[in-house]
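User: Here's a chain of 119 residues. Predict its fold as tokens.
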Amino acid sequence: MIETPQLQLIPHELPHFEAILTDQGQLEQMLGITVFDDTFDFPGVAGIEAIRYAYGYLKADPDALGWWTHLFVHGRDKALIWQGGYKGKAIMKRAWWRSATRPGYQRNVDRNEKRRPKF
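Assistant: Prediction complete.
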């Protein structure tokens, strides 16, 4: 989970999806949050169908846990305000670079080390 004073990002797990698809009150009890009746009514899209798709994807690929979808919980109100995710798994590549200060020096670094989000 990623947490700031204003927001919690909780990775969607299979029991969360199952609660949403059967009884949203179970999700409230699991996470200790408020889930409004219309939380999963997405304007312009298939709403619960999107939940079913995400559930099926996570069930078929358990490695997607942690990056696939998240529940967005308002920090102060402890209310589910949205859910969302990523199109694909992050690719962590390593790159070789030469130091400008020490000719011939090489260091194996993570390209993303300076781009990680600050919460």
